[in-house]
Design brief:
112 residues, alpha+beta, Alpha-Beta Plaits, four-stranded antiparallel sheet, 32% helix, Transl_elong_EF1B/ribsomal_bS6, Ribosomal protein S6, structural constituent of ribosome, small ribosomal subunit rRNA binding, Ribosomal_bS6_sf
Length: 112
């Protein structure tokens, strides 16, 4: 199944953001999944102040990851990121539920 994970990491060093994305990628690959695309959207201000892990956040590093994996793997990644103190927000989107929908999925030019 094809999923897109959208996350906002707290404002800190870029090394922490890379570590988060690398860990997610390693989990997906080790469980037989495929990472299709990883995009870092930059450091942006949040539309509202977000309270998470007993801190207030005004900005964050936004990123997305498009990947194929089993349902169990994407649930494990989501649960891992929900409790990670470096993450402000995380959500997942199911892009294709079956092979017919997956065949209709087309990548935009310039995407790897």
């Amino acid at each position: 199944m094809l999923y897109e994970l959208v996350g906002i990491a707290r404002v800190s060093t870029m090394q922490e953001v890379r570590d988060i994305m690398r860990t997610m990628g390693e989990i997906i690959i080790k469980t037989g999944g495929v990472v299709r695309r990883v995009d870092w959207l930059g450091r942006q201000f949040l539309p509202n102040v977000v309270g998470k892990h007993q801190q207030l956040h005004f900005a964050g590093h936004h990123f997305t990851m498009l990947f194929d994996s089993s349902i169990k793997t994407q649930r494990d990644i989501y649960e891992l990121l929900r409790v990670d103190a470096r993450m402000v927000r995380v959500t997942r989107i199911n892009c294709a539920k079956n092979l017919k929908e997956l065949a209709k999925f087309k990548q935009k030019p310039g995407m790897v």
